[in-house]
Amino acid sequence: MKNYYIAAQNCSNKKSGAYTGEVSVDMLDSIHIKHCIVGHSERREYFGETNQVLAEKVNLLLEKGITPIFCCGEALDIREANTQNAFVEAQLKESLFHLSAEDVQKVVIAYEPIWAIGTGKTASTEQAQEMHAHLRSVLAAQYGAEVANEISILYGGSVKANNAKEIFASPDVDGGLVGGASLVALDFIEIIKALK
């Protein structure tokens, strides 16, 4: 099917070796995977993945021509302390800013407001746009506005059929990293339609 691809949810930061249970980038490449999520909030929280580990994963994916979907975002305590911008900026800088301008444009960024996922709290469209604009400004400061504008920044904060159109209308939101809503076919179709 045209313009539909299978993506992996994770990969190893090790190129090869005796790491039982890990899925290497070479394994993903061998089955023609073209996209891979790295740095999802659950991987960071439950598996202790650091920004340095994620930089290693990004490097390995780019070597094989696989698009990294790099997740970043802040937990509730960081949002409540109003330090979310600096926190997410550090995630970008420590995991991506070693890349050339050419390579960073091959990365898709997904912003996850962790505090709004499964907590009953909801990020407003304004909060989503505010963070996406901040991320783009951080990228522009490092690589220039032209490069920053070429990088897709997805929103991953409980995108649903009833809020997708409003979220996707934000100038710095380029799409969504959709979780549970993708499991309900009719809802997912509505989310896809909201991108047009």
In short:
This protein is of the alpha/beta class and 196 residues long. It has ten helices and six strands; from the N terminus they run βαβααβαααβααβαβα. Helix 3 (51-63) packs across helix 5 and helix 5 (84-96) crosses helix 7.
- Structural class by sheet pairing and helices: alpha/beta
Largest sheet, if any? 6 strands, parallel
Structural Rg:
16 Å
Strand content: 5-15%
Shape: globular
- Going by CATH, the architecture would be Alpha-Beta Barrel
Number of helices: 10
Query: What is the terminal separation in angstroms?
Result: 19 Å
Fold and architecture overview:
With 196 residues, the chain is α/β, with parallel strands linked by helices. The chain has one domain: Aldolase class I (TIM Barrel, Alpha-Beta Barrel), CATH 3.20.20.70. Helix content is 45%, strand content 11%. It is built from ten helices and six strands; from the N terminus they run βαβααβαααβααβαβα. A six-stranded parallel sheet has the order 1-2-3-4-5-6. Helix 1 links the parallel strand 1 and strand 2. Helix 3 packs across helix 5 and helix 5 crosses helix 7. The longest helix has 19 residues. The model has no long low-confidence stretch (mean pLDDT 94).
Write the layout of secondary structure elements.
Blueprint: E1 7-8, H1 25-30, E2 35-38, H2 41-47, H3 51-63, E3 67-72, H4 76-80, H5 84-96, H6 101-104, E4 108-111, H7 125-143, H8 145-150, E5 153-155, H9 164-168, E6 175-176, H10 185-194
Parallel strand pairs: 1-2, 2-3, 3-4, 4-5, 5-6
Helix pairs in contact: 3-5, 5-7
